[in-house]
Amino acid sequence: MAGERIGLGLGLDDFSAMRIRNCYYIDKSMLIKEVVTKAGFVKLLTKPRRFGKSTNMSMLRSFFEAGKVGEADPKLFSGLAIEKEKRVWDEWYRKYPVIHINLSRMAAAATIEDSMKLLGMSVSVECQRLNYLLNSELVSEYLKTALYNFVQNSSDPILLLGSLETITDALSAHHNAPVIVLIDEYDAPFNHKEQDSFRDQLLSKMSAFFGSVFKGKSNIMLIVVTGCLRIANESIFTGANNPQVYDLDSKLFSRFYGLTENELIRILKEQGLEEKLDDFKSWYNGYYYGGEQIYNISSVLSHISALQSDPDSLPENYWANTSSNDILKSALESSGDCAKVISLIAGETVYIQRISSTITYRGVKREDSLWSVLLSTGYLTKAAGKINAYRIPNAEISSVFEDQFRDYIKGKLGEEGLLRLQAAVHSLDPKAIETVFKESLLALSVFDTAVTHEYVYHVFFAGVLFNLNLFSNRESGYGRYDVQVEFPEEIMVLIFEFKRFEDGDQNLRDAAQRALNQIFALHYTDHPKSLGYKVVCFGVGCSGKDCAVIGGVVA
Question: Nearest-CA neighbor of 204 among 124, 112, 108, 104?
Fold first, then answer.
């Protein structure tokens, strides 16, 4: 829409609200052409969370939905690319009634009864939007009664499981046209550990709910389903037409979710933030979908908003609180998978022989399903140009992994173990630190310490000191220190560097000396010294469940 943009639309995922309020909108309208021209009566589009799925679904509804009597057309698509697609515009624009149901609230259910109540609530929200059907002279009294009864008692299992079909039939009758059905976040009911105990029941009920219209009814024009995961067809689409799946590897739809680099550059130029491009690349890029590098659109806009308020704002993790991280916790709790997680945190690529594009939740704890979920939800991405290779996409997701690993460490050591190492660190005595850290390492499994990188020790150590004023892997001098602990009241900073035992070392103290030498060679102490801090330096050599600590050197 014309005019100066008045905001980024943060917190809004409704297309029409964004356009009416003249918020910044990245034109993804050509998704409409792909949806109506590409194969599939039922299309399943799977993309990671926070990549604009809900906004795109509301855009589809706004485009397809036939206007009601007296409703003004707000020209939501003015200036967008789809306006130039005359054939699509003439055949599809505002020509069909639409059912649009978002199942995201079902993720909160802890019982099968709660799941059904929340499903009923989700459908009831759509019924309220379509309440004109109750007064339509074109809808039969039978359908109006069925619709009314459902609205009055949306948790009734019989009425609920048939509600999608009831709404479809009423809409089709009123508009004398086939219906387009949009189901957003279809996999949300199955995404959390709480559903394990009743997952089979839930799959059966949701299969019945979807199946009432997914079987190819004559009054259905098109069905579009979105979510993060591709749930096995035999689990949830039983008896329905198999959907045409467009997943992470599909080139057809990838550019309509997230941001391409060209789109990001254009936004930054418009906002006068071109010099911040490298920060955005490091923190929010890195997803490799459909042959393109893609940015997390939600995090990009969040950081742009932060920069508008404070030009000195540093990139941060906007992802962490957008959903549960249960699946990452499961990976850490599995001994073999924990070693892979540590390698990923260290910036390495891991090789996984079997990753399935289809999730069957009965087997979600198997390695292939576990890592498939991490890939589908955006925790991982494929390593470009490599087979069976996966990596953490960017600094934002790496920080999520680090936070989860620290929580894992806290659970391993317990409160007493944490306090003992913290006290040893505060003592500034390298021998005391060595003794307690060595005891702490016994909590790690042999799988954890088998990783050929000192990062496991660095992250472990930082995890134990989580409630001190701690910084990890920050730029300083000519490199990045491993761990820095500040004691502001004492005007003192501690710097720790970690090295794994290598072939050239005679013993662990040699590795510790290499670590200590690096602190001085790369001038990690210069910045805190310039601020007036006393700086105490420690080198830590590690191998397996053993360590040596030297230093206590005041720079």
Answer: 112
3-state secondary structure (DSSP) of residue 85: coil
Residues 187, 120: Cα–Cα separation, whole Å: 16
d(CA 162, CA 147): 10
Domains contained in the chain, CATH given: 29-70+84-246 (3.40.50), 258-317 (no CATH), 325-393 (no CATH), 412-554 (no CATH)
Q: What CA–CA distance (Å, rounded) separates 87 from 95? A: 13
Beta strands 389-391 and 381-382, pairing class? antiparallel
Q: Would you state the pLDDT for residue 241?
A: 59
Q: What are phi and psi of 97, to 5 degrees?
A: -70, 150
* 70, amino acid identity: G
> How many whole angstroms separate alpha carbon 413 and alpha carbon 406?
11
Asked if 182 and 98 count as a contact pair (C-beta separation under 8 A), the reply is yes
Give residue-wise pLDDT tens across range 482-493: 889 999 889 999
- What HEC string does 218-253 produce? CCEEEEEEEECCCECHHHHCCCCCCCEEECCCCCCC
How far is Cα of residue 143 from the mean position of the Cα atoms in its chain?
40
What is d(CA 461, CA 475) in angstroms, rounded to the nearest whole number? Answer: 18
**Residue-wise pLDDT tens digits, 86-103:** 999 999 999 999 999 999
CA atoms within 13 A on the CB side of 384: 10
**pTM higher than 0.85:** no
More confident residue, 335 or 372: 372
The identity of residue 214, as a single letter, is F
Beta strands in 338-431 (DSSP E): 350-351, 381-382, 389-391
Helix (H) or strand (E) holding 109: none
**209-222 as b/e: b if 16+ CB within 10 A:** bbbbbbeebebbbb
- Give Rg (Cα) of the chain: 27
Q: How large a percentage of the chain has pLDDT more than 90?
A: 34
Query: In the chain, how long is the greatest CA-to-CA distance?
Result: 90
Residue 265 has pLDDT above 70, yes or no: yes
- What's the token pair of residue 221? 């024009």
